[in-house]
Amino acid sequence: MTIEDQIKDILRDTLGLEDDQEIKPSDSLINDLDADSIDFLDILFHIEKKMGVKVDSTKFNISGFDVNDPEFVQDFKLTKSGAEKLQAAFPERKERYVEGTAMQSLFRSITVYDFISLIRSKIISDYISLKEQREFDYNTIFSSFLLTEFGFGIIIKYLPELKDDLKPGMSMTQIGDTYSKPQLDATLQKLLKDIKPPKL
């Protein structure tokens, strides 16, 4: 089962959807699948429990974007800095993220594909942290949501087969596109086996 399929199964179970209900990558978790803030926490809990991938709910978009940081969010709206960070992460959809965007609108814009891209990137960083035996600051691997030179170097150190598929400066969405390839999803499956905690 691919990473995408695993996450879709978790979404179906958590949101009470029919087993055969199609979940499209473009579906908004809130607008199309009726998720709410409690559901988000529940989804993240089940992803950690079933896949071993832990995501800080306040840093849902990775790379230090903290919804409680006034540099990025003030009065429940995106600041200029917050908008620029998200535009860098998702350049092909940057019109979503403009200064003054309400946080409610921001969360409504999160798609299944965005969520899957986040988990794929987190699997890589968790695996690298495990191999280096230390917790990485995401800003050393993803700066403003773009893969850094350091991040690229350390990823190919442990995953040399990705040398031709990744390059510094790639956005998280582009990395998500890369890992949608079947052969690279298989690589992620192997990484999951390493980072997933043993069952009690």
Brief write-up:
The protein is 50% helix and 4% strand.
Characterise this structure:
- The chain is mostly helical and 200 residues long.
- It is built from 9 helices and 4 strands; from the N terminus they run H-H-E-E-H-H-H-H-E-E-H-H-H.
- The chain has a single domain, classed as Non-ribosomal Peptide Synthetase Peptidyl Carrier Protein, Chain A, CATH 1.10.1200.10.
- The chain has helices at residues 3-15, 37-51, 80-89, 103-108, 112-132, 138-141, 149-158, 172-178, 182-195, and strands at 73-74, 77-78, 142-143, 146-147.
- The radius of gyration is 16 Å and the shape is globular.
- The protein starts with a helix and ends in a 5-residue tail after the last helix.
- The mean pLDDT is 82.
SSE layout and pairings?
Elements (H helix, E strand, L loop, with lengths): L2 H13 L21 H15 L21 E2 L2 E2 L1 H10 L13 H6 L3 H21 L5 H4 E2 L2 E2 L1 H10 L13 H7 L3 H14 L5
Antiparallel strand pairs: 1-2, 3-4
Helix pairs in contact: 1-2, 5-8, 5-9
CATH second-level architecture: Orthogonal Bundle
Please provide the count of β strands: 4
Strand adjacency order, main sheet: 1-2
Oligomerization state: single chain
Helical proportion?
40-55%
End-to-end separation: 23 Å
Supply the CATH class. Mainly Alpha
Descriptive tags:
mainly alpha; Non-ribosomal Peptide Synthetase Peptidyl Carrier Protein, Chain A; two-stranded antiparallel sheet; 4% strand; globular
